[in-house]
Amino acid sequence: MQFPIRLALLLRPTVKIGILLAVGFSVLAFVSTPFLLSEISDHYDISLGAASLIGVFQLGGFVVTSWGAGRWLQPRGWVFVTSLGAAAAANLASAALPAFAALVALRLLSGFALGLVAWYGWVQAFGDSRRMDDVAVTGPMVGLVAAPLVSVLLTAGGARLVFASLAAVSLIPLAFGYRSAVDHLPRTTTRNRAVPAARILLICLGLFTLGGSSVFVFAVVLGTGNAAMSVTVIAIGFSLNALVAIPAVRWKAPRKIPSPPMAAAAACLILVATSTQPWLFFSALVAWGFFFWLAIPGVFEVLASRSRYPEERAGDAQAVMAAGRAGGPLMGGLLIDGLGTTALGIAGAGLVLISAIGVFTVRNVAPPLQDARSTTSTP
Length: 379
Known about the structure:
Blueprint: H1 2-11, H2 17-44, H3 48-51, H4 53-72, H5 77-94, H6 100-125, H7 129-169, H8 196-216, H9 219-225, H10 231-249, H11 259-274, H12 278-305, H13 310-338, H14 341-365, H15 370-373
Helix pairs in contact: 1-2, 2-6, 2-7, 4-6, 4-13, 5-6, 5-7, 6-7, 7-10, 8-11, 8-12, 8-13, 8-14, 10-12, 11-12, 11-14, 12-13
């Protein structure tokens, strides 16, 4: 974690370093899951579909707390401390590799904690573009070192060492500033329904992340199996995937037509799932990061312009994307165990392609709303 600390200091972030480190820790925790699936499957002598439950429940817990925290909590320091303490406890207990049912429950607790951390971090940035940039870029920055780090830990000590290291790293942010800059969140008693065009776009976002995560979470399994690559090389691919995401996130050119990069992402998925050529698998894995982050802001722009209340649809978009990521590991595991990797690639890429067609159709059929033209906020 020293690299993110020094980089954060160098960039003089507007969000407190402890909070950025906590957001970075959540990225590290999620990146570790693809590397753990084979290890968990072998240790407990279970199928990949069953092993994927550690990711499903962790993401499910993340969805619940990231969605509900803003409705029931205020961003107080005790929330931050309790969340990281719960994450440390969950990972330390996971390092003992208890009965599989207990491990799944512990990953759910980890997901609850990670959701609170993500909410606490994004609350600091709400309404400020500079702060939002600081929080948003934390993911790709940490992603550069996360996969190689997890790969080294897995090789050195297996899943036990990975979980133990996550427990230790989760406490590092507490040594830095983390007091919330937001004193109070306003409560709303009414909520406006999304218009039909916005609802279709939200469904497309859910399908996009469902299809993507169903393949991406098994990238290590697919790479070591179909392409006969080492875990270390695949970890480098994960790092480059995060690296190319940075210019995609920062892309300043107009992104009014997001469907082409979405279709390109679908092509990357089917190559990751089916390729037996290491160079082709590696290239597709890296390119996926670029096309995903090139497409998502464009879809957000279309959603904002087709919504009467873009600020409410912003939360809806994050919720449906998180739900898609939660369902992806289970879908992918069942397909790999039942029909094989080719079926996984077709299903995952198919969902992404359907979402691209849906976004393209709404963009061309539904005109921008007058209310949305006057707003500058995007999800």
